[in-house]
Known about the structure:
- The structure is a homodimer of 131-residue chains.
- The first copy, chain A, has helices spanning 5-8, 49-70, 119-130; strands spanning 13-17, 21-25, 33-37, 74-79, 88-94.
- With 131 residues, the first copy, chain A, is α+β, with helices and mostly antiparallel strands.
- In chain A, strand 2 (21-25) and strand 3 (33-37) form a beta hairpin.
- In chain A, helix 2 (49-70) runs antiparallel to helix 3.
- The longest helix of chain A is centred in the middle third of the chain and has 22 residues, at 49-70.
- The first copy, chain A, is globular and about 40 Å long.
- The mean pLDDT of chain A is 96.
- Chain A binds chain B through residues 42-45, 49, 52-53, 56-57, 59-60, 63-64, 67, 74-83, 85, 94, 101-104, 106-108, and chain B through 42-45, 49, 52-53, 56-57, 59-60, 63-64, 67, 74-83, 85, 94, 101-104, 106-108.
Amino acid sequence: xxxxxxxxxxxxxxxxxxxxxxxxxxxxxxxxxxxxxxxxxxxxxxxxxxxxxxxxxxxxxxxxxxxxxxxxxxxxxxxxxxxxxxxxxxxxxxxxxxxxxxxxxxxxxxxxxxxxxxxxxxxxxxxxxxx
Amino acid sequence: xxxxxxxxxxxxxxxxxxxxxxxxxxxxxxxxxxxxxxxxxxxxxxxxxxxxxxxxxxxxxxxxxxxxxxxxxxxxxxxxxxxxxxxxxxxxxxxxxxxxxxxxxxxxxxxxxxxxxxxxxxxxxxxxxxx
Lengths: 131, 131
């Protein structure tokens, strides 16, 4: 647990945080958001139903805000945790012909892709997630 | 929409179904479950919050039942839909040293793997999901 990189919160761009979880902006893809549980547990069903609702309601809210500001062709949501078994949920804006489209971002890269997302769009999304 | 394979419900092994969604057993991996919305919509935030809770509560319930009967090393949950933009959620039992471990099942295959899951375990899981 002491070696868990998600327990250590290192180099995270935290957008908002409460007692249960934090929301971070991920560098890999413009607008990529990750919701990370603050406790070191591996699976959703380790949460109480109340905690699960609290975290999943935030995922729903972020998805809505992401669609409004980034206008992606699809949103991918995933909780894998095979490398780091500390509950976290990826919320990923996807665009037709992005580097991995139509496959997952964990699949083989198909091409180079330049995101058209502007810093202003990202900032507007962050501001609304914070609000 | 008429061409959508998830609207057509073809060749699905349906475990349970209600007005909002159905739960199917997926062939690819023993115990792999998919929850498929009955309506043709693409994203969680196209659902009302009440519908979202209904479907996500079932995901939480299935995850708990899957852990009890299959004892996986990790559960992967994902809603991608890049190929088929009709909301569906994968609930995947993962095992250390399975064919894709520690990567996603949409990543490159690393090795051959023989699942130790028994038909009885799968049937017990199905029975409890139905109940």
